User: What shape does this take?
Amino acid sequence: MVENCAVYVTTSTSSFDNASISARYGTTVRRCSIPNVASAGVFAAGNAPVEDCQISQCARGVAASQFAGGITLIEGNEFNDCTGTAIDLPARKRMVIGNRLRGNAANINANANANVVLGEVVVCGPGTLPAAAANPTASLVW
Assistant: This one.
């Protein structure tokens, strides 16, 4: 578990899973403050929950793995002013519940074979929620 942490500026953008916090295979990330990251604030592989974090001014807020199975829970987070996508979900099963999305370039990206359940999401600012999946093989449930 990674809990009650503050992560500051990183600059590397060398790979998809490069992030301030790389949570893999059940590692929970909870109540962390992650500002100003050039890649992803949190990379979540497998069923690594990301809960109650404040993620701001990152290229991507949470990037979820396209490889590992399980269900990734992204719940109760605040995403502010991300320059790219606040929640990037390439594939597999995801639960996105109770997040606040403000001023992001894009809020949620669901790619091929993503099965995403969205609930209680609050959006303020220029980024919108997708009316349909970004990829025809993705499934979004509101």
User: Anything to note?
Assistant: The chain has one domain: 2-141.
